[in-house]
Amino acid sequence: MIHGSENPELRDELVAAIQSDTLSTWADRAIASARPDSDSGRVAASVHSTCATIRASNERERDRLVEELNEASIGVAAVAMSHQRHTLTIDVAVADAPRALSVLLGRGYRVSRSWTGGARASFWRVADAQLLTRDGAATTVVRLRWRQRSRSRLHRVFGPTSADWDVVDLPESLWWVYPAIRPARLAAERLGLRSSDHSALEPFLVTPHGLVGALLDVASVGRDDVVFDFGCGDGRFVVAAAEARGCRSIGVEQSPELWAAAVERAATAEVADRVRIVNDDAARMDLSEVTVVVLFLPMVVASRVVPDLLVRLPQGARIVLHEQTALAPGVPAPDDVFAVVVDDAVTVAHRWVVQRDG
Fold it and tell me: What are the tens digits of pLDDT across the range 91-113?
């Protein structure tokens, strides 16, 4: 279901519930108060079914992971789940965290960033969580969390972070140097000598299969369009667009591994003649023939990318950004907003149409 301007009040309720991570609660309340044959009643029933499907998927994954962790003699203190996102938070003891991470990696999860030597040693001494993802019909996100000993406010403010561990890979014996790297790194960023993005595109999350068709509808993609995917990952969106709409697609991916997976996906689907996968930085791409851009990015990145696209894209091109979080302050107001609810996924889609003055 795509909810837009045909019922703006209901749409706004859904958008607010999605962005506040209270969609399941909204559905329960609407079912209790609305007539089953009303718009709100029908939508609430559909939303309730979607949330139940996501919850059941999370429960199956929770049970599988807890069993496997227990088999490795790792106790799980608690597991928290979302009812509208494919996300889990697993709490373990500090001493069990490295082995718990190994178990998850052995079950097909991956970390977006990892370190060796002193950076790795520093991470295990100061960090309290690790984010992992595993791709399927949707990306399952697991936040493995452990409780460190209490730290002073000074340590919380000046202790090293992933940005500091990325600066240099010191020998393991020098792990204690990283707190001194932090002020130098911050000074370099303020002077413009070093980027402050800190790999903001990570972790890589794929657009759930169930949302692809709905997002193509939001973007009004037809045979004559050229669809551009900024950070196309494994290529599922650009390939699906070519298959479903007969259009041409361009996917840009910086990761060599994901680029290779996208190329293989296009070849397997026999749409390689209409899908071009580029291993490059999207900021350097010529967008003069692009008519549709679909984005699934963290808001910190979208606040930079959307304004740039509004300048670079040709007249009439459409930009669709989808996320479950609210738009960042730096993102221009969209022309349209849609609440999208499918069988096993939900999102908020924002659409801009490029208009040139004069």
Answer: 999 999 999 999 999 999 988 77
Please give the pLDDT value at position 200: 47
Per-residue pLDDT tens digits for 227-285: 998 878 788 889 999 999 999 999 888 778 888 988 999 999 999 999 999 887 767 77
pLDDT-derived band of residue 350, with 50, 70 and 90 as boundaries?
Answer: very high
Q: For residue 199, what pLDDT is reported?
A: 47
Count of other CB atoms within 10 angstroms of residue 316: 10
CA–chain centroid gap for 236, Å, is 14
Q: Is the peptide bond before 203 cis (omega within 30 degrees of 0)?
A: yes
The values of phi and psi at residue 350, to 5°, are -110, 135
d(CA 252, CA 130): 27
Please report the DSSP string for 184-207 in residue order: HHHHHHHTTSS-S--STTPSP-PP
Q: Where are the domains of the chain?
A: 209-353
User: For the residues 58-86, what does the mean pLDDT come to?
Assistant: 92
In the structure encoding, which two tokens stand for residue 157, read together? 């403010």
Structure-token pair, residue 12: 């706004």
How many helices (H) and strands (E) the chain has is answered by 12, 13
Sheet with 87-92, edge to edge strand ranges: 76-81, 87-92, 140-146, 129-134, 110-111
**Are the CB atoms for 247 and 241 separated by under 8 Å?**
yes
The fold of the 209-353 domain, in CATH, is Rossmann fold (3.40.50)
What is the percentage of the chain residues whose pLDDT exceeds 90?
Answer: 44
